[in-house]
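Justification of resources, computational component.

The compute hours requested in this renewal are based largely on the per-chain cost of generating structure records like the one below. Each record pairs the submitted sequence with a full C-alpha cell output. That output is archived, and it is also reused by downstream analysis tasks.
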Amino acid sequence: MTMQDNNSADWLGRAREALARTDLSVQAQSVGRVERIADGIAQVSGLPDVRLNELLVFDGGCAGYALTLDADAILAVLLDEGAAIQAGSKVTGTGAVVRVPVGSGLLGRVVDPLGRPIDRDETIAAEAHCPIERPAPTIIERDLVSDPMETGILVVDSLFTLGRGQRELIIGDRATGKTSIAVDAICNQKNSDVICVYVAVGQRATAVERVIEAVRAHGAPERCIFVVASAAASPGLQWIAPFAGFTIAEYFRDRGQHALIVIDDMTKHAATHRELALLTREPPGREAYPGDIFYVHARMLERAAKLSAELGGGSLTALPVAETDAGNLSAYIPTNLISITDGQIVLDSRLFAANQRPAVDVGTSVSRVGGKAQKPALREVSGRIRLDYSQFLELEMFTRFGGISDTRVKAQITRGERIRALLVQPRLANLRLADQTALLAALAEGIFDDFPTATVGIVRARLPTWLDAQAADAVAMLANTGVLDEAVRRRLVAAVSALGADVAATEQPEAAL
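The structure output for this chain reads:
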C-alpha cells in the first residue's frame, strides 16, 4: 500500500466519523437582508413569514421588532444601538414577540425595557418571560374598586381619593410637581403591601436618578422596580417601556398581590409613537399624530384593574403622567388620556408659582372612584372641605375689589385661608390616615380659626410625632379599623388643639413657613 493510499484511508475514516456526528434532520431558516437603515428604522426584505411585532435579530445580536408589514418589505424598529448594522446585514426572525423577564428577582433593581440590568452587572433571576403586549382583563374578571390607594398627600387622599385598580391621570404644565406627586405616592407604600413600578420614558438621566434616590431614602426600594428608557435610549426602547412596565407589574397582580405603576410620562411616549409613525410613513392625523395613538394608550391603561376574588383579588393601579402646554387640557393627547382614565389630578402653574404646593387645582381635578374607596374615617371628616374651599376661592376673588364687612363672609374667608394652609404639604412629608383625620376633624371643629395661618403648617409638620405621644391608642384604632367613633374623634381634636396652642405660644409667626 502506498503512502497515498494510507492518506486516503485516514481521510475516509475521519470523514465517516464527522458524518456520524452530523445532524442530518431537515432544518429550515428564514433569512432576510437589510435594504436600508436610518434613524433607528431598518427596511428588511426576504422574511415572508414574519408576524407583526415579531422579535427580529440582526447581525451582531442587535434586537428589533417588526412594526410595519408591507407587500415586499418589513419596517423594523431597532431596540439596540444599530451602528454595526448596514445594508446587506443578515436578519432572522425568532417566531416570538418581544418579551420581558418577570418575577420577584426584579424587586429593587433598575432595568431597561427588555429587563436588562442597568444598576449593576448582576443578572436578573427571572421566574418567567412574558409578552409586553397582553390583553386587558375582561369585565367579568374585574371587581369593584373599593380599597384606597393611600398617597399620604392630604389634598389627594381627602378630595380625590384613589382606589386600588384605578387609573388616575396626573397632568399639568412642565415643572409643576407632577413627578413629585407620583414619587410621594410610591414612598407612601413603605408600610403597605403594594409593589411599585416606576417607568421613565424619555426623561433626563439626572431626573431619573433623583427619583431613584428619593425612593431609596424615603420609601421601600426593596419593593420597587425601576424601568428606565431615558431620552438617550432608542425610540424603540422608549416606545415599549410602558408596555414592559405593565407586564412586570401584572405578574404581582395576577398572584393576588397589589401593584402601583407610574408612567412618566405619556406625553413623551406619544411623541415617540409619532416619531416612529412618521419614519415609517404612516399618515398623520390631528396635530400630526397617527390615528391609532388613542388605541395605543387605551389598550395599555385598560390593563390596570382590580381582579375578582376568584382570580385572587389582586390589583394594579396606574398613575400615568402627562404634560400640558400653557394649561391646555383640550389638546389632543391630554383629551385622549382624560377620556381613558378614571379621573385626573390637574396641577396649575399659577398655584405652583404662588407656593401652593402640591399645586392641585381642586376645580378641574376629579376622581371618578372617590368616596367609594375612601376610608370611613376620612370620608366623615372631609365631606365639606371641597365645597368650603371652592366657596372661599370665589369670595377671595371679590375681596380684591374692596373690603367685606359681613361677619359670616369674614368667617368663611378665615376658614378658607386655614384650608389652603392645611393643603400645602412639602415633598416627601407623607401623612398617615390618623394624621389626616385629626387635621380635618380639627379644621371642622374650628380649632385653627383662633390661630394664625402660619401656625397651621407647623402643626401639620409636628403632628405625627405628637399623636404618637399623646394619642397612640387612637392612632392604632384608626389604623386597624379605619372607622372614626366619637371618642377617638374627641381625642384627636384635643391633641391637635393642644399642639396648636403650644406652637402659637412658642413659635414666631414669621418663622412658621
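The chain has three domains: 31-97, 101-374, 380-511. Residues 14 and 492 are 91 Å apart (CA to CA).
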